[in-house]
Design a protein that fits this description.
By secondary structure, the chain is of the alpha+beta class. The protein has 2 domains: 116 residues; 156 residues, 2-Layer Sandwich (Heat Shock Protein 90), CATH 3.30.565. It is 47% helix and 22% strand. It has a 5-stranded mixed β-sheet with strand order 4-6-7-9-8. Strand 1 and strand 2 form a beta hairpin. 31% of the residues are buried.
């Protein structure tokens, strides 16, 4: 058990250190300089600063591509050791179950590393027919153990299927990101609700006018404190985070948005003092 725990913690610390390096490289500096009106002008609004920030993001993407190779090598070793533990004769059921659970975490970390490496490049992934309801139910099963007992998790899906053509692993990861953010927004406990439905949005089309598009909607809502209005336009920016430096990399929500856009969808946000609701909209097939 101790070996399994050490392997899991070690993998997390390596990934955390690399994410910290990327975040410190790409996060815009704070501070300002005096402007002509006597106030302060944020460096982020200067054209030169914006160009430097864009260059840093591009460099961060290249750095991630190099780091992911070394990280995956470490994961391969950890995964092989865990498989060996699970298959060792005489291992107790508890040890085997924990080894299999840790192996699943290793595989998910490998997928996360791959997505980090492709973050700055288009990634179409594998698109296959799926029922959005089943993806949400599967995600809820993973969220429950890490959210309870302080956070109550509920799911509401319609009886009919919501057919989509997606990379199910990417959509599941996006949902998990939203759920874990919601959990963190309720340190004293609360309610986390996942729901699916269909909805129509009038979207711009080539030329003039708009056209109705039918989407499958995944809504993740919580009863937390909400997101301040002045930050809502920034939260999808890569490496932007309101969490302490050792608690978040600022990549979660930007990956959620990129995943939705890559699938021809979009992300909506509603937040007030009574909680927050994120909606991932994906075209129905």
């Amino acid at each position: 058990m101790d070996a399994i725990a050490c392997a899991d913690v070690g993998a997390q610390s390596h990934l955390g250190a690399w994410l910290d390096r990327l975040a410190s490289l790409a996060r815009p500096r704070t501070g300002g300089s005096a402007n002509r009106s006597g106030g302060t002008r944020s460096r982020d609004t200067c054209p030169d600063a914006e160009l430097r920030h864009a260059q840093k993001l591009a460099l961060a993407g290249r750095l991630a591509t190099g780091l992911v190779h070394d990280f995956n090598n470490a994961l391969m070793v950890a995964g092989a050791c865990l498989d060996l533990i699970a298959e060792t004769p005489g291992s107790t059921c508890i040890v085997r179950d924990q080894a299999h659970l840790a192996s699943t975490a290793v595989r998910r970390a490998s997928e996360l590393a791959r997505r980090l490496a492709t973050f700055s490049r288009p990634d179409n992934g594998s698109r296959e027919p799926a029922d959005l309801n089943e993806i949400v139910r599967s995600s809820a099963q993973l969220v429950g153990p890490v959210a309870r007992p302080l956070v109550e998790v509920s799911v509401c899906c319609p009886a009919h299927a919501l057919p989509v053509r997606v990379d199910s692993a990417q959509i599941e990861q996006a949902i998990l990101n939203l759920c874990l953010n919601a959990r963190d927004a309720m340190p004293g406990g609360g309610a986390l609700h996942l729901a699916t439905r269909s909805a129509i949005r009038w979207m711009p089309r080539d030329g003039d006018g708009r056209v109705p598009v039918t989407y499958g909607v995944v809504e993740v809502s919580d009863t937390g404190t909400g997101i301040p209005r002045d930050l809502q336009s920034q939260i999808f920016e890569p490496f932007f985070t309101t969490k302490p430096a050792d608690k978040g990399s600022g990549l979660g929500l930007s990956m959620v948005r990129e995943t939705a856009l890559a699938h021809g969808g979009l992300v909506e946000l509603t937040s007030d003092g009574l909680g927050t609701a994120f909606r991932i909209l994906l075209p129905l097939s």
